[in-house]
Design a protein that fits this description.
A: about 375 residues; 2 domains; 10-stranded mixed beta sheet; 4-stranded mixed beta sheet; 13 helices; B: about 500 residues; alpha+beta; 5-stranded antiparallel beta sheet; palmitate (chain A); lipoprotein (chain A); Spore_GerAC-like_C (chain A); Spore_GerAC_C_sf (chain A)
Chain lengths: ~375, ~500
């Protein structure tokens, strides 16, 4: 009985403690930050922090479909200061945990990307699974552009990132991946690029997530066109090519054939020939014929084989051109050859380490071999021909 | 207590006087005096007229006895012999015993010169017909349910187990009510030590009036302060037959349609007997569903509170956006919202239960409309909270044992408090404490949580999953050697 009494007393005590917790955040007291833009004002040497958020007061209980966005900016000498100054403007508790998208302005990316990434990865409110994308121009301006579909701009942007694997010409990295690549001085990396442009038959400028921004040694080093981003998609980590599906138009005889490609396998290896490193990139692709502008008898195994070889050679050419640009124009190891050398050839890497960026990487031979197989040609009569 | 016995006097008149004195102001005691041809009182029958079948008594019993006494040269021994032949054969050696027989719907016959009374059970009180149990309804399977009459209930069980191995022991519990309690078990199946323990505890029951088996249950269970029932109760004879075959002991109480089954383990309360009558795929699907609803009915409101007030990051963004819009303008904190709604739900449930069925249904419909729609429309309660409370309530109705469902509903409230205080951490700690408590419980030497029993895997699995009938072993509920030790020390 005494145990029971003690237990009952404990229960009553618990009842009184309800509401005492300082960690309580009621949903009606918060504002969800959905998108964050960080800019750097070079003249004032200030960071400008802009958020796009949704809060409960902008919606009413009767109409749950109505979601209004609130965009606000604040500046400060450091990013943290700017972020805290923003709180003075917010009527609610700002919650960053649902923010999936961080847009870094071109100025901030060129001058102090290091501080930005440091802030994002240190802050425990911010999820490392959020995407980090660099904007062409001022980020806060881009953030104020209305979405194309009428949905929340954050939802639309995250949807576009998810669609990247269906066309391959854009690649957005998460903060976690960026932080991982960041510490490596031998290589650079590519993340998404957000720009504004007039769409076909459009009446106002909209946001485009296309191409890539090259980051090297903590700063934005340049922009990449879509087809170079596709090459990076194919060569770097498996998680980027595993689900990738990209269209490729191949000139074949006098026709143009569009194939939808998927990556079946991929390997990047380093070997040493006469003490010099050589990289072998092998990619196995599976294609599905989608459009043909002239009749080609693909039912004939010889013709099909010919097409497979032609497609392979064509993609090889595209990849080589992209790799040449990375090596000779950018001179930044964006695909991570240095990681392969360091992991699998540590002895050789010790010799190469010092001159890797300046002398070795720009001239290292890279052999690219692409195997395309077209397992099915479909049943359309047009494909068969005579 | 006065234990002195009053002997039965050889004089019928004196015995009648003694009884009249004892039953003064009783109001229902009746006597019938038999006289000899000479007009002297030779015998007297005493009974409670509201308990016995008086019509049968005056048609079938009194005339032949009266005739015997009036016959010439009727000596007492031969009359007594004849009376015994009529079926009046329960002997009472003292007045206390005679009184017990009288109050137990017996006709007690006192014969001049005999210091022993003879009784015959002739019940004439109303009995409910055998109906389908109200709480343990099943789609398939037998429909019969126990009633308030002990003998009928015994009959229902004996009809299902036609074996001489079915043994019973009788007890009388309650100083004033003198309720008959029967203990039923299958020889060879029941664990002798568990049986002995139940007998010991039954003998130790100190109650004045026993009107339902629930009183006995509370008295004999291992941990009376635990919110969880450690003895199963059922209104279904088929369930009792199955349980006896599993080595359990059934305790039948006169006047109660609920038969107690011991020892019981936690999973017994989650599986209705209907599981055995369905295809095992379906039965297991339902068992899985019930495990989910068990957790839902216990934890859903508290998890909702914890997630929406402490761990906003754990809610998926689209859901968060919905919550954000539905919570706008709600004046109450989530905790109070949940508490109010849960209390309102319990009030509604209780109200509809206590009212006649037809009104009860309309109360629940009107109540649901008021709580669900009006509360949301007026902006006092958010829509997700209504869904959470409704889901929790419906989930608790899927638990077949009424006791367990109540326990879960009751435990939900402290969990709500803990969640509002410490979030998921508090819920995790509470769950830990709950599991510890469940694992520490024993029912007559058997661990309440079956996983702890070091048995063959099939037995352990058998407590959770219904195997196909060919592979189903008789997973006996018996005390394991280590848990038995508790019995010996008690």
């Amino acid at each position: 009985m005494s145990r029971f009494r003690r237990f009952a007393a404990l229960g009553l005590l618990t009842c009184m403690l309800v509401g005492c917790s300082p960690d309580i955040r009621e949903i009606s007291d918060i504002a969800l930050v959905m998108l964050t833009a960080i800019d750097y004002d070079e003249q004032k040497r200030d960071y400008v922090f802009t958020i796009n958020c949704i809060d409960a007061s902008t919606n009413d209980a009767q109409n749950s479909a109505k979601k209004l966005e609130w965009i606000a900016s604040a500046s400060g000498k450091t990013i943290l200061e700017a972020a805290r100054n923003l709180r003075s403007r917010a009527g609610k508790i700002l919650v960053w945990q649902h923010d999936k998208f961080f847009l870094i302005g071109e100025g901030a990316a060129r001058n102090s990307l290091y501080e930005v990434v440091d802030f994002l990865s240190r802050n425990r409110d911010i999820r490392l699974s959020g995407y980090l994308v660099v904007s062409q121009g001022t980020a806060s301006d881009l953030m104020r552009i209305k979405s194309e579909t009428g949905d929340l701009i954050s939802n639309e942007t995250v949807g576009r990132i998810k669609n990247e694997q269906l066309w391959g010409k854009s690649l957005s990295l998460t903060i976690k991946d960026v932080a991982d690549y960041y510490g490596n001085p031998y290589r650079g990396f590519v993340t998404g690029k957000l720009s504004r442009s007039m769409p076909v038959a459009g009446d106002r400028e909209v946001l485009f997530l296309s191409g890539g921004s090259v980051i090297h040694q903590g700063k934005l080093a340049g922009w990449l066109p879509g087809k170079d981003v596709l090459a990076i998609h194919l060569i770097i980590k498996k998680k980027y090519w595993r689900e990738l599906e990209f269209p490729q138009t191949v000139p074949f005889r006098s026709a143009k054939i569009s194939l939808l490609m998927r990556v079946a396998n991929r390997s990047v290896r380093m070997r040493q020939t006469d003490g010099q490193p050589v990289f072998d990139v092998r990619i196995g692709l599976t294609g599905t014929v989608l459009t043909i502008d002239k009749q080609v008898n693909l039912a004939n195994p010889d013709t099909l084989r010919e097409l497979e070889l032609a497609a392979g050679r064509f993609i090889e050419g595209e990849l080589k051109a992209s790799l040449n640009r990375f090596q000779q124009q950018l001179k930044i190891d964006v695909v991570g050859f240095s990681d392969i050398a360091r992991k699998y050839h540590p002895q050789a890497w010790k010799r190469m380490e010092k001159t890797w960026s300046t002398a070795i990487y720009p001239t290292v031979p890279v052999r690219v071999h692409v195997d395309v197989s077209i397992p099915a040609i479909g049943m359309s009569k047009v494909l068969g021909g005579d | 207590m006065d234990n002195r016995k009053t002997p039965i006097a050889p004089s019928v008149v004196r015995n009648v006087e003694t009884l009249r004195r004892r039953f003064a102001d009783h109001g229902s005691i009746s006597f019938h005096l038999f006289e000899s041809r000479a007009g002297e009182p030779v015998a007297a029958a005493a009974y409670v007229n509201v308990l016995v079948d008086e019509k049968r008594l005056y048609r079938q019993l009194i005339p032949p006895i009266a005739e015997r006494f009036r016959a010439d040269g009727a000596d007492i021994e031969s009359v007594a012999e004849a009376v015994r032949a009529l079926g009046i054969e329960q002997p009472a050696s003292d007045m206390e015993e005679a009184e017990r027989l009288i109050t137990d719907a017996c006709i007690v016959l006192f014969i001049e010169g005999m210091t022993e009374a003879l009784g015959m059970n002739l019940p004439g009180y109303g009995r409910r017909a055998i109906e389908e149990p109200m709480l343990e309804v099943s789609v398939r399977g037998p429909r019969a349910g126990f009633i308030e009459d002990l003998n009928t209930n015994m009959g229902l069980i004996y009809r299902r187990l036609k074996t001489s191995k079915l043994k019973s022991k009788s007890y009388v519990v309650g100083n004033e009510s003198r309720t008959d309690v029967k203990l039923l078990y299958l020889e060879d199946q029941a664990d002798v030590r568990v049986l002995r323990e139940i007998e010991r505890r039954l003998a130790a029951v100190r109650l004045n009036v026993v009107v339902d088996s629930a009183q006995i249950e509370e008295w004999i269970q291992d941990s009376p302060y635990s919110p969880f029932s450690q003895i199963q109760n059922t209104e279904r004879p088929d369930r009792v037959a199955t349980a006896l075959n599993q080595g359990k002991v059934a305790i039948l109480t006169d006047g109660s349609p609920n038969v107690l089954l011991a020892p019981a383990i936690f999973t017994d309360f989650l599986h209705p007997s209907e599981d055995l009558y369905e295809k095992f795929y379906f039965a297991n699907f339902l068992r899985g569903l019930r495990v989910i609803t068990l957790f839902v009915s216990l934890f859903l409101p508290s998890v909702y509170i914890a997630l929406t007030t402490f761990h906003l990051e754990m809610i998926p963004t689209p859901l968060m956006l919905t919550f954000l819009s539905t919570k706008a303008g709600i004046p109450l904190p989530t905790f109070l919202e949940a508490l109010l709604m849960e209390i309102a739900f319990e009030v509604l449930r209780e109200a509809s239960l206590r009212l006649p069925q037809a009104i009860g249904q309309s109360v629940s419909i009107v109540g649901a409309l008021i709580i669900g729609e009006a509360a949301v429309q007026s902006g006092i309660v958010s829509r997700p909270m209504v869904i959470v409370v409704a889901l929790t309530g419906i989930a608790s109705f899927t638990i077949p044992s009424f006791n367990t469902a109540i326990t879960l509903r009751m435990l939900r409230f402290p969990l709500i408090f803990v969640a509002a205080w410490t979030g998921v951490l508090g819920i995790a700690l509470s769950m830990f404490a709950l599991v510890l408590h469940l694992c520490s419980l024993k029912s007559f030497g058997v661990y309440y949580m079956p996983t702890l029993e070091p048995k063959r895997w099939r037995d352990v699995v058998g407590h959770y999953v219904l195997l196909p009938i060919r592979h189903r072993s008789l997973s006996k509920t018996e005390a394991s050697p280590e848990s038995r030790e508790g019995l010996e020390h008690e």
